[in-house]
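Feature request disguised as a bug report, sorry. It would help if multi-protein outputs had a clear separator. Right now it looks like this:
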Amino acid sequence: MLEIRDLHVNYGAISALHGISLKVESGKIVTLIGANGAGKTTTLRAISGLVKPRSGVILFEDHNIATLPAHVIVGRGIAQSPEGRMVFANLTVLENLRMGAYRRKDPAGVAKDMQYVFGIFPRLKEREWQAAGTLSGGEQQMLAIGRALMSKPKLLMLDEPSLGIAPLLVKTIFEKVVEINQELGLTILLVEQNANLALKVSHYGYVLETGRIILEDTSVKLRANAEVRAAYLGG
């Protein structure tokens, strides 16, 4: 579904990605793991059109989207739940979810997907008239994922869904990620510092280090890899 070839991204004079290449197969959960500053978020931002590559190709369903603006990329079927959640704090839960569907022209489909989001995250239904800024961190993460789902994506990108969330809710959110993948057959690209958790739920993984991919394999094999265990899984 997605293929990146030799992607280079700069922030001014600073090079953030040094020619990375990766693939995301349809229907799979693929994870990017690595330390802070490795280039994980930059990769997602490049795919979303929020930063423009210096060079390289980003193929989504065989079309190069590397130069397209972000709103067009959303329309093509890519949605991102950003790091830090970035909910619209002054809008209600319901309004945030509707914002996710702003490009859609199928009211019946939007209503159906709203019910799906409320079904998978019942807490959002309980708080649908509540301002998003008053939700807990875990609830805001559910909302950010739900908002992304409302665009009816073919590829869902999740950036650090466990960040700043109570451990019990982290477990719930990752269970829901697997459920979404299995029920909808939705392809997911996951960026996550909790490498152990990410490799448990994903099918395939890439290890990023200072803007380069240094290792890739099935998630099962990465979890068993001595170097990965030492560097990211606590031995």
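(second protein starts here, but nothing in the output says so)
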Amino acid sequence: MAEPLLRTEGLSRRFGALAAVDGVSLAFAEGEVHAVIGPNGAGKSTFLNLLSGELRASSGSVRFRGHDVTRATPDRISRLGIGRSYQTANVFTELTCAECLWLAAQSRAPTSMIFFRPAERYAQAGAERALQACGLAPRRSTPARELSYGEQRQLEIGMILATEPRLLLLDEPLAGLGHDEAISVMALLREVSLERTLVLIEHDMDAVFSIAQRITVLVGGRVLETGTPEQIRASAAVREAYLGTEQP
């Protein structure tokens, strides 16, 4: 069996007496969309923060491509090939779409002396690829502040793509979006998932069951169940703990 792209073993994070994430052991296969769902307060965002290095684990480990990254800083984790989005769109509102993507792309330049060399040599091609991939090529000269919220979400995903990640950690990418915007972002995520691995936190169960190949349910910081969408849909324990009447 192939080594998972990402693996956690007994991963925990405590805040005083509270275990927000409690002994989570999961494997994320390369090329898979793996959704992490659960009720509010289940520890989903804390779990993502542990994977991205924004929080330090109290115990347990995280391995990416076979290497221990449990104590790695967010910038090192990003350079290793893990990109992260947030519950609210995180873009440079005063810059144009093209400039936002150029900044993201140039962060992968092989030298810190980037500003002493032609920007095109290092970042222009990557920024242009990301601009096309996120569907904002017609808006390249538009300041990010003038984009709709859905377009800002697309731009944020484009900025992640410009860093050339192998794995994307997506924290509620559909939060705050209207119906049409959610459809556009879901189409983008499906396209992105053809070439990359996605770990997705999302409360929209229709979206989760339509895109994920594997689903993990967290409750109280612990794994309740992991399985295919069909297995999760059929689980009495999951229905009782979380899905209930929200079940698709």
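Even a blank line would do. Unrelated, but nice: Residues 119-133 form the longest helix (15 residues).
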